[in-house]
């Protein structure tokens, strides 16, 4: 089920520090479960989310490169933590610190994905925003989604190489630097 994406309104939504947004998807990223916090924050009724691709929530200010890295990582059965800007059904944006993992069968085959998303500290968003702006700039110089994603990934790889870190280490550095900030 592909929905028409709302236009961003510029309104930013937040949620409680103790709340967790939970979703599950099938192997192709179509939503099979959404908890009540997800439904409330995303401003979508359950009937519109179930069966829809998780990419329905992609905010246009969120670099494709991060999702490329996310899919590459979880397809290998590895977990990923990422700061993600989502777009709610009413056009509001909301930031999350996502933890995405593969769900496996008893024989180790990936049967879907599970994501827990927490409230990110404002200082963390302030730290990740310049990187994402740089990735978006690289992506917007290209024509077509594949070329844009490749350009964003190349830029991400360059930034991380210059910093002598991985994306995972970068994210954990932000988490540790901003832990406990409100």
TrEMBL record:
Alphabetized PROSITE patterns for the sequence: PAS
InterPro entries xref list: PAS, PAS-like_dom_sf, PAS_fold
Name assigned to this protein: Transcriptional regulator
SUPFAM superfamilies listed in its UniProt record: PYP-like sensor domain (PAS domain)
Domain of life: Bacteria
CDD domains membership: PAS (cd00130)
Transmembrane segments: none
PAS domain ranges (all copies): 26-77
Organism of this sequence: Cellulomonas oligotrophica
